TrEMBL record:
This is Calx-beta domain-containing protein. Belongs to the Ca(2+):cation antiporter (CaCA) (TC 2.A.19) family. SLC8 subfamily. The lineage of its organism: Eukaryota, Metazoa, Spiralia, Lophotrochozoa, Mesozoa. Keywords: Antiport, Calcium, Calcium transport, Calmodulin-binding, Cell membrane, Glycoprotein, Ion transport, Membrane, Metal-binding, Repeat, Signal, Sodium, Sodium transport, Transmembrane, Transmembrane helix, Transport. It comes from Intoshia linei. One of its GO terms (cellular component) is postsynapse. One of its GO terms (biological process) is cell communication. GO terms for molecular function: calcium:sodium antiporter activity; calmodulin binding; metal ion binding.
């Protein structure tokens, strides 16, 4: 009977075999590259250079294919469904909105974590399978080294990237606490099982538990995100209310938005080139979309490869038009929407606080509403408010749950959100109201004054409504030669029973006296009516008129677009606008608004052209990087577009490609390390960890600068580090443990430097996480994880980088036995 060698015996045999060779350097056999024996120093130097360049080139290649892999994940996790909810200022309008099918927390910890960490995880799996199901040095050390770089270096860069004195706080702090705990516990668990529970051996149950900690993490994070542990008997599962800009625009809204943007641009600069107009439209629409961490990861990858970027960069002249036309209009819209918010103009020595709006309407089945308290004036002090609810027609514990709490504002905090739970009793009752009030605690009267809205009226609406009426769009452009005008009035969010809405036409110079009026009748289930006006019959000779919706039948509502303006323009001018609108609604624009491609032709076009074909916006660096990566781009263009099978086909094939390329990277990294005198464990925590993490660095920095919170920049780092252990070690260890259990032999491991690396990283990680919480809760540091004032943010960043350097040095010194292992 043939004797079965254990992992330790095979490792010892390989070391003895290498010692017997006469070569200067022995390169072990890999998945793709065979064993080599180097006898000449010249050959060693030349191969070192060649392998180093090939390794860098393969890092670019894995970034390119990871881009397509993450596009598939983005397609999968961006799937939405339509639900009825409240939108608009004060949550007063009932609309059908699109909400994600995937919970953000679950998506971040599963597919999105896999998207950013796929090379490290696959390297660990491939190494153990190709190494006769024995644990190697490259895969596990890469996972630990990547975790150290992500937590310490990326966090440091993000801290100093925020302009002083701006700050970024983690919004989903409860989920962050869960992932932070698991990111430390995961590595403590690894140290326990390889050195203490079953020294130098991994049992089947240890491997399975390591793998099962992954779904446990996802479940606990999801329950925390949903406030599972603090639900009351009156609460029902709710979804997060979102406005249109959070989820992106549907086709109808997008076309309207494009039209309005073009009109504003032409008014400001009629002779602007088509290309610049298109870029402004693309940038404006992209800025309205909710962005995940993968969105920033994909953009950073394309920057490295000279590909089509998803963050549109404008030149100085076009940027000025964008700032004036788009951002100025957005600020005007916000000013109109926030017309209730008026401050007394008191000195900045005091803080001025008040509610965001004086009135909020909420459907009875809404579950939970959020009420914002805003602060102006002095933003440097700290104070407390007493916020409480009082009954009106609505009664506490019958119609809503009591709020009676102390709200604390810290330095730099300009806004707080209070949540009120609404009780749905499933019985018809008329609209009822209650109040929320605020008062300043006595000891803070010399620091804080209340604004004009210190009391808010909250109305609970019956959830069986006949509909909301509004115009289909806020503006119409008509030719001067047109005789008839057709204005669409739509009925949203229900069409129960017969209903009517009164309308009137006014001259823009006199909106008090109607030129004409009437009533539109809607029968049961009718959702659209067209208001037809004959221009000649009504003697409409001016260039601008305003149509208004005045009143509706009892129980109905008038929506956000309660008036529309009709502009009569010269035929030639209008044709110019129409032509530009038609040009900008073409296939190229729609593709530019998507992060992924929808056809093979588009994929190969992007692969063969610098900056995806947008040559006008390409930089010199883009040309260089495109030249270096064009072979990879063409190879990976054969991956099916994400529109096939909901993105799953692209997901599977691109994951396979990443696996193959990762295996090649493992071979090159091992040989390169041997040629320059580095052990695999040291190569893994330096070159390989940095090579796989650089796209994450650029992505996190961009997210930190552009996002309002720190969730997409550092909030997901701890979750990703946890997933790396549970999948990157748990899965291959489970496979190997099953293999050796079938053989009837123990799955032993050569602990080597892994235990020291894990313990050192764990200590550094605990220090980093504790310091992040210190920054969050101490006013001196800005009460935020990122940003703050100088010099504190630079001190923290330098200390985090120092921790990473200490980790690298200690792990390397132990690998070469200059210091004893832990």
């Amino acid at each position: 009977m043939e004797k079965i060698l254990t992992c330790k015996q095979m490792s010892e045999l390989a070391r003895n075999s290498a010692k017997n060779e006469l070569g200067l350097v022995t390169l072990s056999s890999g998945v793709f590259i065979p064993a080599m024996y180097i006898y000449s120093m010249t050959t060693r130097i030349l191969l070192s250079i060649l392998y180093g360049l090939l390794l860098l080139w393969c890092f670019l290649g894995v970034a390119i294919v990871a881009d397509m892999f993450m596009c598939a994940i983005e397609r999968i996790t961006s799937k939405t469904k339509s639900v009825k909810t409240l939108t608009g200022q004060g949550k007063t309008q009932v609309r059908m909105v699109e909400i994600p099918v995937w919970n953000d927390t679950v998506a971040n910890l599963t597919l999105m974590a896999l998207g950013s960490s796929a090379p490290e995880i696959l390297l660990s799996i491939i190494e153990i399978v190709s190494n006769n199901f024995c644990v190697g040095s490259l895969g596990p050390s890469t996972i630990v080294g990547s975790a150290a770089f992500n937590l310490m270096v990326i966090t440091a860069i993000c801290i100093i990237s925020i302009p002083s004195p701006q700050i970024r706080r983690i919004k989903a702090i409860k989920v962050f606490c869960i992932t932070a705990f698991f990111s430390v516990f995961a590595y403590i668990w690894v140290a326990l099982i390889i050195s203490y529970i079953s020294p130098e051996e991994i049992t089947l149950w240890e491997a399975i538990i390591t793998l099962l900690l992954f779904p446990l993490l996802v479940i606990l994070a999801y329950l925390t995100d949903k406030n599972f542990m603090i639900k009351t008997k009156h609460e029902e599962p709710t979804f997060q209310l979102t406005d249109k800009h959070l989820l992106g625009l549907n086709e109808e809204d997008r076309d309207d938005a494009i039209s309005n943007i073009i009109k504003e641009i032409i008014k400001e600069n009629p002779d602007m080139p088509e290309h610049d107009v298109k870029n402004i439209v693309i940038k404006s629409l992209k800025d309205q979309k909710k962005k995940s961490r993968l969105w920033y990861r994909i953009n950073s990858t394309r920057m490295l490869g000279g590909g089509r970027k998803i963050i549109t960069v404008l030149n100085d002249d076009v940027e000025r038009v964008y700032q004036k036309v788009i951002l100025h209009n957005n600020m005007d819209d916000k000013a109109v929407a926030q017309s209730d918010v008026k401050f007394s103009g008191k000195s900045d020595k005091k803080s001025v606080v008040q509610f965001y709006s004086s009135h909020i309407d909420a459907l009875e089945n809404i579950g939970q509403i959020d009420i914002k308290i805003i602060r102006q004036g002095n933003l440097k002090n700290s104070f407390q408010l007493h916020v409480f609810t009082t009954d009106g027609e609505a009664k506490v514990n019958e119609d809503y749950e009591l709020v009676d709490k102390i709200v604390e504002f810290g330095p730099g905090e300009a806004e707080k959100t209070i949540f009120v739970n609404i009780i749905d009793d499933n019985e018809y009752e008329p609209d009822e109201h209650f109040y929320m009030e605020m008062e300043v605690l006595e000891e803070y009267h010399n620091q804080v004054t209340l604004g004009s809205i210190s009391k808010i009226n909250i109305v609970i609406l019956n959830d069986d409504e006949p509909g909301t009426f509004e115009f289909s769009q806020p503006c119409y452009l008509e030719k001067e030669s047109s005789d008839d005008i057709s204005i669409a009035v739509i009925r949203r969010n229900g069409a129960d029973g017969n209903a009517w809405v009164e309308w009137a036409i006014y001259n823009m110079s006199d909106n008090e006296t109607p030129l004409s009026n009437g009533k539109l009748l809607f029968v049961h289930s009718e959702k659209i009516k067209t208001l037809k006006i004959n221009k000649k019959e009504m003697a409409l000779k001016d260039s601008n008129y305003i149509f208004k919706l005045l009143t509706v039948n009892e129980g109905s509502f008038i929506g956000e677009i309660k008036f529309t303006i009709v502009n009569f323009m010269e035929d030639k001018y209008l044709e110019n606008i129409s032509s530009r609108m038609a040009n900008l609604k073409d296939k190229d624009l729609l593709e530019a608004l998507e992060i992924s491609t929808t056809s093979y032709s588009a994929q190969f076009r992007n692969a063969l052209n610098v900056n995806g074909g947008e040559i006008e916006d390409a930089t010199n660096i883009d040309y260089v990087m495109h030249f270096l990566t064009i072979i990879w781009k063409v190879i990976f263009a054969i991956i099916p577009p994400t529109q096939y099978a909901g993105g799953w086909l692209s997901f599977c094939i691109s994951l396979t490609m990443i696996g193959l390329l990762t295996a090649l990277i493992g071979d090159l990294a091992s040989h390169f390390g041997s040629l320059i005198g580095l052990k695999d464990s040291v190569t893994a925590i330096t070159f390989v960890a940095l090579g796989t993490s650089l796209p994450d660095l650029f992505a996190s920095k961009t997210a930190a600068i552009t996002e309002e919170n720190a969730d997409n920049s550092i909030g997901n780092v701890t979750g990703s580090n946890s997933v790396n252990v549970f999948l990157g070690l748990g899965l291959p260890w489970t496979i190997a443990a099953i293999y050796w259990a079938i053989k009837g032999v123990a799955f032993d491991v050569d602990v080597g430097t892994l235990n020291t690396s894990v313990i050192i990283y764990t200590c550094m990680a605990i220090m980093c996480i504790v310091l992040l919480f210190v920054r969050r809760y101490v006013g001196l540091f800005g009460r935020a994880e990122l940003g703050g004032t100088s010099p504190w943010k630079y001190i923290f960043a330098a200390f985090f980088v120092l921790l990473w350097i200490i980790y690298i040095l200690v792990s390397s010194l132990q690998a070469y036995e200059y210091i004893a292992g832990l």
